[in-house]
## 1
Amino acid sequence: MPSFAGQFVILRRVKRKFLIDTDTASDDAVALIMALRSADIEVVAITTVAGNVEVQQATRNALYTAELCGADVPVYSGAERPLKRAFVNASWFHGHDGLGDHDYAAPRRGAEKQGAVEAIIESIERKPGLVLVTLGPLTNVALALEKKPGLAAKVSRCVVMGGAPCCEGNVTPAAEYNIWCDPEAARVVMRSGMAVELVGWQLCRGRAVLNAAEIEEVRSFGSPVAKFAIECNSRAQQAFLEQSGEHGIALPDPVAMAVALDVSIVTAQSEHYVEIETESELTRGMTVVDRLNVAANERNREVWAEALKGGHKAKVLWAIDNARWKEALYRALR
Ligand SMILES: [Ca+2]
């Protein structure tokens, strides 16, 4: 008689593990919803950092968003300011509370006692191979790497929303906010050897922006998360128009999260040495991408010595499938 026992083994899919570091404002909140509502993702920790808003506000916003999703993921509060710079928030863009100033209720839970940097170190050491997704300035991650450089090799992917490779920035012509805010931290991460995938601001404009019809479509889902996702971006929608002349809701962090969830939405990418400008005031925080591999040329080695020392290139993303990114968003908000 053949045994059927083997046919009744329940195949449990192992969930992929994410750690999300965020300066939780309006687009971060939508990105958190995407991860927290993904059936095949376990968010092991959310760590917060000063950026779009003060870190205490970012922590409240992360907790509020987790509660909206019915998630009990631990939230750890982190760095209150960049490594070496004065802190400059982006509340002009996201509202004073980072969520468009709609007086959302205070979260019922508080942050964990442990700090974000320790939580990053412990989470990666306990769960090597996890995916790190960074949605804010890289201060916490840099502090963790300075304490434990070996962490870099234990992360399978580090998906970074940040930078404006070879294009226009949103704080200065040269720089995007997350990198501009703490360029020294970004430099530590880029030189660490971590498997960085750089989701620059240029991917989050143009056809990646939710237009008026798409905003209405999301509203029509009628779910609390859909309502919140549109409402909390009300100020950001206005600010994006003032900043770039583009209509609609730009969602940089959710675009990065869509890449983290499903890398097959990326349609063009290449690997390069990436350096971060930290000396100049004019180009502070510029993500300088060696697209033509000039670092390989003997004549240029001196300038690129530090990048070459690590010998590690980052994946720089140049294009995504916008229809599929929006499908991923809609799936999370329905
Ligand atoms: Ca952010």
Note: The radius of gyration is 20 Å.
## 2
Amino acid sequence: MPDFSSTRLWDVHAHPFLNRGAVTPDEFLRLTGFGGGWEPYFAEAGIEATPELGAEINEWKRNTTWHKLLVRELSNYFGCERSLDAVVAARNAAVASGYKDYVTALYEDAQLDGAVFDDGYPLPQVDMNAMQAEMGIRCAKIYRIEPLIVSLLKQDLGWSEFSKAYDDALNKALTEDGYVGVKSVIAYRTGLDVSPLSRTTDQGFVALDAIKRGTGGGAVKKLRDHLLCRALDICSEHGVPMQIHTGMGDYEVNLVLARPAYLMDLLRFPAYRMTTVILVHMGYPYQREAGYMAHVLPRVYCDMSEGVPFSGMGAAPILREILEMAPLHKVMYGSDAYTVPEGIYASAKIGKRIVTTVLGEMVADDVLTAAEAQDVGEMILNGTTKRIYNL
Ligand SMILES: [Zn+2]
């Protein structure tokens, strides 16, 4: 059987955070919960966030298998009672006695060497240098294009200035500013049905002109589609990977237009056949589509984030399904965890456990030899991320 007890981890997709100090159990529940904040969800609809409504939300956040596993992993770490109150009291005491020492010990227990952070969430951006100073692991960062697009649209630029400012910002991020790749959440905005013909610079010109003149015609989507293509071009020029959000996310995601299959025409377009693209969250719940795409498109990869950890007990079945079609070395461990250090920790523990389970089954079924399974697990847990990001 494969043994990953001494295998180190790299997390290919997470979001940055700084020390928040002590938190209450309700705050911890909210900070680690999946799907976006419930206060803005109701506030957007003009519904008052009463304490009764908060209690109702907290009740269902507590009743997810993700929350149960988070409490399990933290109670194991602290050696305390398996309850939210007990683990939050233990983590608050550990934070108070020295945040950096606590996080370093926590991540060493998970054998985590580093993580690739998407600093486009939360906004305003977390200072990654400040975060690195608080962490005992390597914090690599990727550059999200959507905040840049919003900021350029607020300026009254003509197309040539807009397009130059966009290229300059991405090129600077990848050269002077230390970013190791690029990320897009276009699935949250106008969807993944992006025509590769959007690549022509004329489309950018026409779309920006239509936005300025208010003539409609899907101009915002045309502009975003063009800028996604341009980001893929720039990633190719720099030889760095592009992460594209696919599948589930916060409540505002367009889940139908987040299916990975919508990206087929774009990613098999001749210009992008050598561009490295990661289908973030392996498109969950459409993970079989993502696995198929990783099979037929040579430079397309998938990560396991969100499926691990937020589907809780679903993580092992998801990994089994993605490995049906995805080449075994093209799946990477990731968490998508945020806000507090404990999400990344619990996810790493769950991730290693399910990789051990699923690869162990493949050995028992004589699909892989124990040595092959060992190699595959090492690639999933750290090797592929380190290779494609040059870490
Ligand atoms: Zn994310």
Note: Residues 13, 15, 118, 336 surround zinc ion (CB under 6 Å).
## 3
Amino acid sequence: MEARCQCGSVVFKTPLEKPLALYICHCADCRRQTSSAFGTSAIFPTFSIPNTDLLSCYSRPTTSGDTLYCYFCKVCGTRLVHMSPGKNVCSVKGGCLDGLDWNKAIHLWTKSAMVPIPEDAESHSGTSDISDYRACQEELDQPTNALG
Ligand SMILES: [Zn+2]
Ligand SMILES: [Zn+2]
């Protein structure tokens, strides 16, 4: 899939034509990170991003003890990709991708959602009912078993 930041300085292709999984996370962290009502994560096998001189990086520790590297366009600030070293998958922020099928998105942390959740969508209210993935999207960015 084609990914592009708002100003068009950073353009890249994902390694697959469809994500392995697509999440919409309604937790407070994702709300803050996006300055929006929720965050979105399209999970892909880890790949190297071109135009790295046009990217800046914000890194932060995760609750699982990893470091999450969050890449964004230096020019327009669009958050594009989240990665952790040693993980086999990464998260491309959904809004920068063309042609995503949002109907397949899995909703997380719906108990703190600010907007209605579609009734037919797969959804999880918080951490306790998700065994495969961690609670927050930014940790979910790196599900170790997404490739089976
Ligand atoms: Zn940009
Ligand atoms: Zn979240």
Note: The beta strands are 2-4, 11-13, 21-25, 39-45, 55-61, 67-73, 79-83, 89-93, 106-108.
